[in-house]
Write a structure and sequence with these properties.
- It is a single chain.
- The chain is of the alpha+beta class.
- It is built from five helices and twelve strands.
- Helix content is 24%, strand content 35%.
């Protein structure tokens, strides 16, 4: 197996995996989405709310604000041995929100108004709207952010987009090609070129494998195939953690699960042998 990184910036990671199977790539994708943990607001202690927004709606909006997560410094709350899942300094963090509008104007409450006890744990963006306050209205609360996994709730998933597709290639019968350019014109990405009846893919990373070029070829000369064992993987995170951290953590989780499976398999095999 070989990995070729194509892009790594702005919380986006794109790479090519050579020499593997879709089973492994899909396991990696699912692990990133549902197993890699992050911090998200789970509980709130509402002291005062005179805004037109219901308490439950405020709690929901706060929970969906992604928080920067020092992933190696916290443990998953439900698996924390120090507090038994109740929340402690090893698996949770506190934030406060105290905003009041002046008597003669309205005010928008943004994520920047959330103040954290830990400077490492802050909203990934200052511009996420929470509520609009009328003159004299106020919101005062304490929020508890806990470490969780995407399989429990989507707010804990680090991934905004996590997908893969086959690495495309052109499969062509040149003897049937008439050089009509119909396949080239049908490509929505404009990444096909034709020269001397030979069709080439100018940018494989942009190919969607939509088969519009294949359908446009009335002489059955062209179809889009894929390179066996090669996949294009794309990951974009919410900013709670970097794509490289999400990828690294997913690999650690997969390795741990494989080791646990091996150990359980050996135990089951030993029991089977003793029965015989």
């Amino acid at each position: 197996m070989e990995i070729e990184v194509i892009e790594n910036k702005d919380n986006k990671l794109r790479f090519i995996i050579h020499g593997t199977t879709h089973t492994f790539v899909n396991a990696l994708r699912r692990t990133i989405i549902s197993e890699v943990p992050t911090l998200a607001i789970e509980d709130i202690i509402l002291v005062e709310n005179t805004s037109p927004i219901l308490d439950e709606m405020i709690a929901l909006r706060l929970g969906l604000i992604p928080l920067t997560t020092p992933i190696d410094e916290f443990t998953v709350t439900s698996e924390c041995e120090n507090c038994g899942g109740e929340g402690c300094q090893f698996c949770s963090a506190a934030l406060t929100l105290e905003v009041e509008a002046d008597l003669n104007e309205t005010r928008m409450v943004y994520s920047k108004d959330l103040l954290s006890e830990d400077p490492k744990i802050v909203p990934v963006s200052d511009k996420i709207p929470i509520a609009k306050l009328g003159p004299g209205q106020k919101i005062r609360l304490e929020a508890i952010a806990m470490m969780g996994r995407g399989r429990e709730h989507a707010k804990w998933s680090p991934a905004v987009t996590c997908s893969y597709r086959y690495y495309p290639k052109v499969v062509q019968d040149v003897s049937k090609c008439t050089g009509c350019f119909e396949c080239v014109d049908a490509c929505p990405k404009n990444i096909l070129s034709l020269s001397k009846k030979v069709v080439t893919l100018t940018d494989p990373l942009e190919c969607l494998l939509c088969d519009l070029c294949t359908k446009a070829c009335t002489f059955d000369s062209l179809k889009m195939g894929h390179v066996e064992g090669d996949f294009i993987f794309f990951l974009e995170t919410s900013g709670a953690i970097t794509p490289m951290d999400a990828f690294r953590k997913a690999i650690e989780i997969l390795k741990k699960k494989a080791k646990e499976f091996e150990e359980e398999y050996r135990v089951a095999l030993d029991k089977y042998q003793k029965k015989k």
